[in-house]
Amino acid sequence: MGLYQRWRRLRFPGLHACGLHTAAVPTPPHWLVERLGLFEELWAAHVKRFKSLAQKEHRNIKITLPGGQKVEAVAWNTTPYQLAKQISPTLADTAVAAQVNGEPYDLERPLETDCDLRFLTFDSTEGKAVFWHSSTHVLGAAAEQLLGAILCRGPSTDCGFYHDFFLEKERTIRGSELPVLERVCQELAAAAQPFRRLEASQDQLRQLFKDNPFKLRLIEEKVTGPTATVYGCGMLVDLCRGPHVRHTGQIGGLKLLTNSSSVWRSPGAPETLQRVSGISFPTSKELRAWEEWREEAELRDHRRIGKEQELFFFHKLSPGSCFFLPRGTRVYNALVAFIRAEYTRRGFSEVKTPTLFSTKLWEMSGHWEHYKEDMFALQPPGPQRDHPTSHPTDTLALKPMNCPAHCLMFAHRPRSWRELPLRLADFGTLHRAEASGSLGGLTRLRCFQQDDAHIFCAPDQLEAEIQGCLDFLRSVYAVLGFSFRLALSTRPSDFLGEPCLWDQAEQVLQQALEEFGEPWQLNPGDGAFYGPKIDVHLHDALGRPHQCGTIQLDFQLPLRFDLQYKGQAGALERPVLIHRAILGSVERMLGVLAESCGGKCYACQSQNKSSALLCPLPPRPLWLSPLQVVVIPVGPEQEDYAREAQQSLQAAGLVGDLDADCTLTLGRRVRRAQLANYNFQFDSGLFSFCIAEFLHSKGPYALWVSLPASPKPPLFLQWLVRKNKAREQ
Predict the structure, then answer these.
(1) Looking at 454, 491, 546, 669, which residue is catalytic?
(2) pLDDT tens digits, residue range 139-156?
(3) Is 696 noted as a catalytic residue in this protein?
(4) 521 included as an active-site residue
(5) At 435, is the pLDDT very low, low, confident or very high (cuts 50, 70, 90)?
(6) How many CA atoms, within 13 angstroms, populate the side-chain half-sphere of residue 505?
(7) Catalytic annotation on 554?
(8) Is 185 a catalytic residue?
(9) Which DSSP string corresponds to 290-341?
(10) pLDDT at position 688
């Protein structure tokens, strides 16, 4: 039966119940049928050509497996999947793709020559990327067939996948429609349609995607060779490098999560797209376990915690920006003060730079060419308003990063080798034009601050400075209770500068990582356009990765800004620039900290059934708690004494609150303090002075300290003040 007839037989229950209106559903769009017909013609020619090549190039080849074992195969005939079946039926069932000489490879694609072969499963990071990329193709197929969508892009992410697509007549996806789209995806996955890889010429690509302006644009910009690969899967045909799973039946559990808008940026007016994100797993059991984990994650959502504990909030009149309330500001300032103290100890000098710059600066740095779509630009008022013939003023842009301004600061006067290394730190506010669909609480904002620093050093100081940055990172994360992993990201396709400089920079970073002693991995092609970098991914209590810190090496900005210093021999020399952040965005780090501790004063194992999915973390330091101490007078007659105790705490630098609401019983107020997650609750009265509740790994317990009311600060107060000061030191 043909694919078109099979598609007609699929049933999409609930389609009309949710009010999904699309005239394309009874029959697929005409362009979809035409595109599939052309693909089938090209595929038939490909199969015929491939059989001829396999007969002509028939020869034995040697395949090296992990561990050094060698097996024989037949060129242009034997596939990685066939070898996996020879090794183990379990491996053949669980493998999602292969790596041939380190490059991703389809399991059903015949091997061509002697090579090293490795199999990827869903348990590996690379395997998840392949699996989720295949899942986004399923989502794309469902959007095309159900909605008549024009597909744009559909990558995998660190925690799932998403697909951006265009709907005509300002059509949007409603949240109530996701379950129907999800059921269509599940139907398509259950059909076990194979992924078919085809190489097509540029002319063939343009013919295949003649009805998709987004793909035509990608072909024009990204396809630089004579051919590129497309993948067919059922009725879907998409421009894609691959690889993919063998067939959609390997996707055992799939769930769509969110819908939002995104923007396709083009030389003309930007197009508004619809974005649908999802998650998938090889089995439905794994999907159910993930859903339990997600329930726990939602309980720890920093946006909920911020609202409940009155730390911060967001408002539609300032999208992508955060309002920090007094409690949240205290925590924010405490985190910044911690980094400032480290700056003093490690020889950094804090500076302040402007927020608004002429775009000439960003053209000089190269950011305007590579980053202008993510910048806020504006045309200032100038003389041309009153005098149209006068020379126009420069376009201005809010800074999205600090490095060009620090280069101007380095270059504003002659420099000597005696000043190096020059370490400049900046907490200036940054602005980035993030798409509305990508905003997510504190983790993705348009306005934020970083613990941003740049080190200008001589080449022979480079290795020591990189080691110092890595040590800085490890010490801060140890205090905050985070584990982390490192990745070396190398030269991307749009890099600036000479390849030899890039090679030199990458070697320096690799040497520093090896001497640092922590595990690291290689991310080829994921570096910044101006230099390679060390990305730092920390893990929170739910095991989720967050990219916060970074260490980037830059040989390009010193060249672009013609930075020089007088060396020991008296000649002018070129410095090397290191971009460095430990917390990254301070706002994002606060969100990660809030979710790691679940809004509690101390991190502890949850007692529900999903607690096995949590990673234990050390207690959050008292100095980072927004709710340190609450003083609760027993009655009105103790209120004055309670205020004195509160003032003693505040004078010692602790955050002390007072709950003198005598309309509630003492027990109700104590319980309210417990639910608010105060570190300590002080209960002032004639017979007892305080209750201190700690969240311990075996559960909460209370410490009663019986103290009479006294005009002097009680001994327990003095102990608590000393303990807080010791923690701060």
Answers:
(1) 454
(2) 999 999 989 899 999 999
(3) no
(4) no
(5) confident
(6) 30
(7) no
(8) no
(9) HHHHHHHHHHT-HHHHHHHTTSEE--TTSTT--EE-HHHHHHHHHHHHHHHH
(10) 37
| Both tokens assigned to 497 | 């500068």
Which token pair is 383?
């003389």
Contacting residues for 278 by C-beta, under 8 A, at least 6 apart: 135, 136, 139, 160, 161, 162, 182, 185, 254, 255, 256, 257
Q: Tell me the average pLDDT across 240-257.
A: 96
Mean pLDDT of 661-681: 81
Residues near 645 by Cβ (< 8 Å), separated by ≥ 6?
Answer: 631, 656, 682, 684, 713, 714, 717
Residue 604 has pLDDT above 80, yes or no: no
Question: Mind listing the pLDDT tens digit for each residue in 504-524?
Answer: 888 888 988 998 988 898 888
Considering 152, 185, 403, 457, which one is annotated as catalytic?
403
Joined together, the tokens standing for residue 511 give 């040497």
Cα 559 from Cα 570, distance rounded (Å): 20
Q: Residue 481: name the closest of 619, 339, 613, 591 by CA.
A: 619
Q: How far is Cα 446 from Cα 219, in angstroms, rounded to an integer?
A: 31
Q: What is the pTM of this model?
A: 0.70
CA atoms within 13 A on the CB side of 322: 31
Please identify which of the residues 533, 546, 580, 588 carries the catalytic annotation: 533
Which residues lie below 8 Å from residue 574, measured CB to CB, with a gap of 6+? 558, 559, 563, 564
Structure tokens at 14: 């609930």
DSSP string, 71-84: EEEETTT--HHHHH
Closest CA to 270 of 171, 371, 166: 166
Q: What is the mean pLDDT of residues 95-100?
A: 96
Q: Assess whether 628 carries a catalytic annotation.
A: no
Do 500 and 450 contact (CB within 8 A), yes or no? no
- Angle, vertex CA 543, rays to CA 541 and CA 547, nearest 5: 100
Task: Tell me if the bond preceding 243 is cis, omega within 30° of 0.
Answer: yes
Q: Which of 451, 452, 535, 540 is catalytic?
A: 452
Provide Rg for the chain, Cα atoms.
30
Q: Is 477's pLDDT higher than 80?
A: yes
Please say if 106 is a catalytic residue.
no
Q: What pLDDT sits at residue 356?
A: 93
Tokens 């000489």 belong to 101
C-alpha closest to that of 599 among 636, 626, 564, 622: 626
- Per annotation, catalytic residue among 579, 588, 600, 620: 579
Confidence band (pLDDT; 50, 70, 90) for 271? confident
Residue 327: active-site member: no
β-strands 447-457, 422-426 pairing = antiparallel
Alpha carbon distances (Å) from 265 to 151, 273, 320, 374: 15, 10, 19, 10
Q: Residue 114 in 3-state DSSP?
A: coil
Determine contact, residues 709/638, Cβ cutoff 8 Å.
Answer: yes
CA distance 699 to 496: 56
165: its two tokens = 């697509």
Residues 69, 78: Cα–Cα separation, whole Å: 17
- Beta 227-233 vs 236-239: how paired, if at all? antiparallel
> Active site residue: 128, 163, 406, 432, which one?
432
AA letter at 334: A
The Cβ-side half-sphere exposure at 92, using a 13 Å CA radius, reads: 12
686 in helix, strand or coil? coil
Q: Please give the order of strands across the beta sheet that includes 356-358.
A: 356-358, 396-398, 377-378
pLDDT score recorded for residue 13: 42
List Cβ neighbours of 503 (8 Å cut-off, separation of 6 or more).
none
DSSP, residue by residue, 35-46: HHHHHHHHHHHH
Phi, psi of 105 (to 5 degrees): -150, 140
